[in-house]
Amino acid sequence: MNIGIDLGTQRRQVIRRVAVWRNGHPEIIPDEEGNRSFASYVSFSRDGRLVGGRAKLQQSVNPKNTIFGVKRVLGHGFRDLEIQEDIRKSPFSYVDIGGVPHIEVEVRDRKESFAPEEIIAVQLSKMVRMAEAYTGEKVHRAVVSIPPGFSRIQRQAVQDACEIAGLEEPYLLGETSAAVVYYGSYSWAGAGLGGGGEKRMLVIDVGAGTTSVSAMVTEEGVVEVVSASSNLRLGGSDFDNAHQAKARSSCERAKVLLSSSLKASVELDISGDVHYIFPISRDELNVRCESKFEAILDQAAQVVSQSSTSKSPVTKSSIQEILLVGGATRMTGIVDELKAYFSETNPSITSVRDLDEAVVFGCAIQAAVLGEGKIHGPRDWLDTILLLDVVPQSLGVAVTRGNDAGEFKTLPSDGGSPHERAFSRTLPRNSTIPTKKTETFSCSSIDGISESTVSIQVYEGESDIPTANTFLGCFELHGIRSLPNSEVRRIQVSFDIDARGRIVVTAEVVGGERGQTRSMEVRVGRMPQYEKDRLKNRAREWDALDRQYEALTQRRNNLEEYCYSFRDGVEGVHEGIAQCLQWLDDTASRSVTNGEYTVQEDSLAAALQRILPPGYIIMRTGADQAQES
Ligand SMILES: Nc1ncnc2c1ncn2[C@@H]1O[C@H](COP(=O)(O)OP(=O)(O)OP(=O)(O)O)[C@@H](O)[C@H]1O
Question: Which tens digits make up the pLDDT trace of 443-501?
């Protein structure tokens, strides 16, 4: 079975969703409490680890060891400016291990550090377990959503996290593409995606912490992303902040209410005694959030302008439809701003069905398309979907600044100063993949020398200065001989990217002899295999501990619930119940074994038996759920 996973956002509201294609439609897989999404929290304590909603409940009592929001630092270096604020404000500690931010927590009375990929892997494994428990089938593969503007390193980090979680060959799908797949599944079913002819669309996804915009062309089942960008620092929670920083959850409630009514109030509880209520209207909220709405429009305008270099540009006037995705697009102010901005051409503005779940549904559909085994339900129209993605950031090589040989830029020799280098974009951002692009360079450093070496230094990014971009790898071509008559040697460099985003860079001496071609697969940011294997083993050990710890926690919760239900409902049982509740209180901050729970349950049962009428069944609170550690 293949599943779809929405990794959700990076802020406090962080949620994950998982879905599967069953009986002809995508279906959400609920967590053990029946919730359709779960908090992406992982909490460590002296006894073990909790994941999801139960972990989030630990945050107020165990903030230093309760982790959330790591997707934000995924693929970043410890010193990257973008994540400094996240590191500084985080209630748990980040440490620098080999230049990569790791999370440090206290587990079983000692400090342990975890790579961000490992924390994401914990959540992925939980989703796999949920899916397997729900369907009774084994999960083979997952389609995982990512912001479409994720860089190569960030994509690789998600891929590594999947591998640590035991998910081989994950398929990463842009959130906006996933939403369009879901949109197509009900709006064009039968006729295939874009059955009504070619359509130019803008897809705007405003989630809790990320805003992604993609310009797309769809036709006959083909969904072609023309250009895309993601802002990982703009989303629904910024509207809550713009409105009032101190009462974020109350502000969020008021914001949600104002999407359907004109007035609401924000409640602020200062100290328990001092309680303020601020009335707020929809218009006021929209005014406070105006700069954020403008930022969304700017991002949309940028995506449209970047599409001009594509084969099928999506211009402002050619957009026929704007598809809204993500919970925060329910804010009426966003729609009003879009209507005003596009007033000349008036494209239709549609909200995708199931705004919050459209992305995971799209992933589940794509997972079914990729599935080769048993597919539940009809899939004729599924087979027509073809997704064409783009290169998220420009790819190219370093060249020697101011040393162009005629029409060609010059590749650097192995020596020379990096300051003299410029960045040559062979594959500009938003080139459709799969693709292969070749550029020819000169190699003038061989002048006067019989043999020379050139260095192919591969970068990703938008700066003209190579070192301001991300270094993806480097290789050399040796033994390049000079030609007679001082003719300049030429070297062709090709970038070959397959549909999954795998990049192979090849350099070849034009007319050169054997051995004068070399290739390199870009493996930037990829964790070394030995490290992945180590983390996979550690994940397996933790999985076993998690189950044990979850079962013990469940046993404590059941016992507590049982005591309260009796205390509130039956006369005369106070003593036994009070004794048990006292024991739960006394043991709250220490490890308790299954044996101790059994002793406690037995003494509670004995106490109740003395009071309750004969035949009254004393419930056990889950003794068989936990295995003795
Ligand atoms: N009726 C509503 N009006 C305004 N905002 C809403 C409404 N309902 C939900 N939201 C906001 O939508 C956001 C959550 O949206 P969604 O579930 O799409 O995000 P996500 O997928 O977790 O995040 P991201 O896409 O950033 O990864 C929250 O900020 C929430 O407050």
Answer: 765 455 555 788 889 999 889 988 888 888 888 887 776 666 556 778 899 999 987 77
- Ligand 1 centroid to 289 CA: how many Å? 15
CA nearest neighbour of 160 among 100, 208, 99, 227: 100
Contact between 179 and 359 under an 8 Å Cβ cutoff? The reply is yes
Question: Which ligand 1 atom sits closest to the C-alpha of 326?
Answer: 18
Structure tokens at 116: 């961000």
Give me the interface pTM, i.e. the ipTM: 0.97
What would the 3-class secondary structure string for 124-172 be?
HHHHHHHHHHHHCCCCCEEEEEECCCCCHHHHHHHHHHHHHCCCCCCEE
Give the pTM: 0.81
Ligand 1 centroid – CA 211 distance (Å): 11
Burial track 294-304 (b if 16+ CB lie within 10 A, e otherwise):
ebbbebbeebb
- The alpha carbon torsion through 6, 38, 231, 344 (nearest 10 deg) reads 80
What residues flank ligand 1, with Cβ below 6 Å? 8-9, 13, 15, 207-210, 235-237, 252, 255-256, 259, 326-328, 330-331, 356
Q: Write out residues in the chain with pLDDT < 50, as ranges.
A: 10, 190-192, 245, 446, 623-629
Question: Which position has the token pair 């959540």?
Answer: 123
The SS3 of residue 396 is strand
